[in-house]
Design brief:
alpha+beta; about 200 residues; Lipocalin; globular; ten-stranded antiparallel beta sheet
């Protein structure tokens, strides 16, 4: 009888652990501008500008116990604003990002390696201007269990904070900088993403 009770107890513990370690799906909905921000920065000796958008959507599957994860993010190209309307028009034109034909920038993970703390190394496919290249980036994935604070901040369910900063070359994606803009736009640009995903 004692053996039966011990087995039952272990089974309950195992089930409880499995429940706590279950993979969760976190959604980046784009409902609130403060919940997601993506910026792109170009810096040369003669000019620096930053484009910004809150039109970021995506989905991340994350297991807080095992720290296994996978995810996809999408940015609406036409929503990126630099503060100068004419420059934004040029950026969306066929000469640059060609927003009418290539409406989104997407990133899909292929491998996520846990490092330490909330730090991860993510390998994935970045699709931009109709071209797809593999990149590797450093990222922060911070899991925040549902609480009175998260609810007060406007979130539903558990929250996953995602942060990453990385560089890429526009020429790798078929974007050629015209000679007249070479002094003002850098081929290498910096991307900075902060997104908050929720289970509710």
């Amino acid at each position: 009888m004692k053996f039966t009770h011990a087995v039952a107890g272990l089974s309950l513990i195992a089930l409880a652990f499995q429940a706590s370690a279950a993979e969760q799906t976190f959604k980046v909905t784009g409902e609130k501008p403060t919940h997601q921000i993506a910026t792109v920065e170009s810096a040369t000796d003669f000019e620096t500008f930053v484009g910004r958008t809150s039109k970021v959507t995506g989905s991340v599957k994350f297991d807080p116990a095992t720290r296994k994860a996978s995810g996809t993010f999408t940015v609406d190209v036409s929503s990126i604003k630099t503060g100068i309307d004419l420059r934004d028009e040029h950026m969306r034109s066929p000469m640059w990002l060609n927003a009418e034909k290539h409406k989104t920038i997407t990133f899909k993970s292929t491998k996520i390696k846990y490092e330490k703390g909330d730090n991860y190394t993510i390998t994935g496919k970045l699709t931009l201007h109709g071209a797809t290249k593999e990149i590797k980036v450093k990222a922060v994935l911070k899991h925040l269990a549902e609480s009175s604070k998260s609810t007060a901040a406007g979130f539903k369910g558990d929250v996953l904070q995602v942060k990453s900063t990385f560089n890429f070359k526009m020429s790798d994606y078929g974007i050629k900088i015209p000679d007249m803009a070479a002094a003002k736009v850098n081929d290498s640009v910096k991307i900075n993403i902060t997104a908050y995903a929720q289970t509710g």
